[in-house]
Design a protein that fits this description.
The structure is a single chain. The chain is α+β, with helices and mostly antiparallel strands and about 575 residues long. The protein folds into four domains: about 5-100, Zinc finger, CHC2-typedomain (DNA Primase, Chain A, Alpha-Beta Complex); about 100-230, DNA primase, catalytic core, N-terminal domain (DNA primase DNAg catalytic core, N-terminal domain); about 245-425, Dna Topoisomerase Vi A Subunit, Chain: A, domain 2 (3-Layer(aba) Sandwich); about 455-579, no CATH class. Helices cover about 50% and strands about 10% of the residues. The chain contains 24 helices and 17 strands. Mean pLDDT is about 85; it is low at about 430-455. It binds zinc ion (ZN). It catalyses: ssDNA + n NTP = ssDNA/pppN(pN)n-1 hybrid + (n-1) diphosphate. RNA polymerase that catalyzes the synthesis of short RNA molecules used as primers for DNA polymerase during DNA replication. Keywords: Coiled coil, DNA replication, DNA-binding, DNA-directed RNA polymerase, Magnesium, Metal-binding, Nucleotidyltransferase, Primosome, Transcription, Transferase, Zinc, Zinc-finger. Monomer. Interacts with DnaB. Belongs to the DnaG primase family.
Length: about 575
């Protein structure tokens, strides 16, 4: 009987699973894209539908659909198995409910809480009225699963308990707070974190709810003035604010399609932007933009548009996010909003105002230059401001071409030559860190330095790759055993090749030779270059001998070495003539 893992692999195509996260392009028998696990400009991430495997030549990660889900979602194996089993319609019969992963149980609990909040909204007039006044239509309420947390101490807690969830688990989800023992007046026990608030569920990249953001209902009671306008789920096993993007699931397709992600500040902005027909919008909750957020967006696009208030405070607040995004390699543009307004305000006034603001977006450096030329009329002062504010941004640009472009622009705007700007730029502190995006959960190990490859080792690797590739092929095109044997002659001692390395070599061979007409001709030429390298090595050794013999004045040794050199030259000539 097939194991669940085998069943799942049979039912799900790796291209579909991986394709959920990244846009795959056909490359021969395989598919290719930019790696979702490390920052790169050229695609070196390959997926083979034939072998059900993936591999990245940049960061050397690879594996099957399970390891892909583990890497990209930060799951453990169990969670990856459960997620893919659900998708494949495979029942994991031997699952003891107690063994269910904590994450899985928390997901069920949060789903139950979402439904509870949604129902509470439908039956309470006040929050419904509030949303209506804010211009949010019923369809958006449904789409974003907006809810309401009743103004009671234990409404949700009691509901979840009645559904069989333990107080400890409810606490783990971040939805209940345990009252300190010292709080004698209220007694021990739990109470709901969200009370009297509009609830916006925050999903993971698969769309399951992992946390909430709750907005206080204004004018609710006297207590509210002391309370924060927004509160969010704290850090839990599922919810990590440095990776959570509100609206991601709803925006994903559109971001990919438009090749642009728009970053706004609040949940209301996301919801109303959708209503205005701009769907490639996400928001971070209760934190500045992090490399974790960027890592998720990087799977879909490398272009980021930030919309914020054009006043000084707004610009200052966005600065850190701009730096982070530039260092991560994003192309960053800025849309400025009329003073004191957020995207939600614009949509409410007139949806086309939001469209106009986006249309007028500028590359972040153009944006700064424009702001400075408006606010600092004195050219010398402006030069100083450019050095302090703009050059650090230019230094963070990944592309040298972009750097040159903007240095030229800055020079023109200040009416000075480029040269001093380049000198200033070299003095600007280089950005700290590697700029690598630490992606998907646990992965952040730096790629180990690759030893410099010689042409010889490349030819050797290619031949080994052809062997492994043909070995696994149902109808091999060559005699694998014979080639393996020939190749062994070029190896000093047996070498052990890891499975990951094998997979890499197979992908390489498949890419290079998958569509060539005559594989044997390619192999012959590779073997020939191996022989040639070997002869050249012997030749330089013989030359060394010759030099030593001459220095020592040993005429016999000189003669021997000369003959050896001639012999090798002869062989090299033969090789080239018959090649
Ligand atoms: Zn990679």
């Amino acid at each position: 009987m097939q194991t669940p893992v085998e069943q799942i692999k049979e039912r799900l195509s790796i291209v579909d699973v991986v394709g959920e996260y990244v846009k795959l392009e056909r490359a021969g028998k395989a598919f290719r894209t930019r790696c979702p696990f490390h920052n790169e400009k050229t695609a070196s991430f390959y997926v083979s539908p034939e072998r059900g495997s993936w591999h990245c030549f940049g960061c050397h990660r690879g594996g099957d659909i399970f390891s892909f889900m583990q890497e990209i979602e930060g799951y453990d194996f169990r969670a990856a198995l459960e997620a893919l089993a659900t998708r494949a319609g495979v029942t994991l019969t031997n699952v003891n409910p107690k063994e269910q992963s904590l994450k899985h149980e928390l997901l069920r609990l949060l789903e139950e809480a979402t439904l509870f909040y949604q129902r509470a909204l439908l039956t309470t007039a006040e929050p419904k009225e509030y949303l209506k006044n804010r211009g949010i239509v019923a369809e958006s309420v449904r789409r974003f699963r907006i809810g309401y947390a009743p103004r009671e101490w234990r409404a949700l807690f009691d509901h979840l308990k009645s559904k069989g969830f333990s107080p400890a688990r409810i606490e783990d989800s971040g939805l209940a707070v345990r009252r300190g023992d010292s709080s004698v007046s209220l007694g021990a026990g739990h109470y709901d974190r969200f009370r009297g608030r509009i609830i916006f569920p925050i999903g993971n990249t698969e769309g399951s709810v992992i946390g909430f953001s709750g907005r206080i209902l204004p004018g609710a009671d006297t207590d509210t003035e002391k309370e924060a306008k927004y509160i969010n789920t704290p850090q839990t096993a599922l919810y990590d604010k440095s990776r959570a993007l509100f609206g991601y699931r709803e925006a994903k397709e559109s971001i990919r399609h438009e090749d642009l992600a728009i970053l706004v500040e609040g949940q209301m902005d996301v919801v109303l932007s959708h209503q205005a027909g701009v769907r490639n919008v996400v928001a971070v909750s209760g934190t500045a933009l992090t490399t974790g957020h960027l890592g998720i967006l990087w799977r879909l696009t490398e272009k980021l548009l930030m919309a914020f208030d054009a006043d000084a405070a707004g610009i200052a607040a966005a600065e850190r996010s701009i730096y982070t995004a530039l260092e991560a390699g994003f192309d960053v543009s800025v849309a400025t909003l009329p003073e004191g307004r957020d995207p939600a305000d614009l949509v409410r006034e007139l949806p086309s105002r939001w469209h106009d603001a986006l249309q007028g977006a500028l590359h972040v450096i153009d944006f700064y230059l424009t702001v400075l030329s408006r606010t600092v009329p004195d050219v010398r002062q402006r030069g100083r401001a450019v050095r302090e504010r703009v050059l650090p941004l230019v230094s963070r640009l990944r592309s040298e071409i972009d750097k040159a472009h903007f240095i030229g622009k800055i020079a023109a705007s200040l009416s000075i030559p480029e040269e001093p700007l380049w000198r200033e730029l070299s003095r600007v502190n280089a950005p700290k860190g590697t700029g690598e995006i630490p992606l998907a959960g646990k992965i952040s190990a730096l790629v180990p330095d690759q030893p410099v490859k010689t042409a010889q080792s490349i030819a050797h690797d290619r031949l080994r790759g052809i062997c492994y590739w043909q070995e696994r092929s149902k109808r091999p095109l060559i005699e694998v055993a014979a080639l393996t044997e020939t190749l062994a002659e070029f190896e000093e001692g047996a070498s052990v090749v890891s499975d990951a390395r094998k997979e890499e070599l197979i992908f390489e061979a498949e890419q290079m030779y998958g569509s060539v007409e005559k594989l044997d001709v390619e192999i012959k030429s590779l073997l020939q270059s191996l022989s040639e390298y070997r002869l050249r090595e012997s030749f330089s050794r013989a030359m060394e001998d010759l030099k030593r013999a001459e220095v020592a004045g040993d005429t016999v040794a000189v003669q021997t070495a000369l003959k050896e050199c001639q012999r090798i030259t002869q062989q090299l000539n033969n090789l080239q003539r018959h090649g």
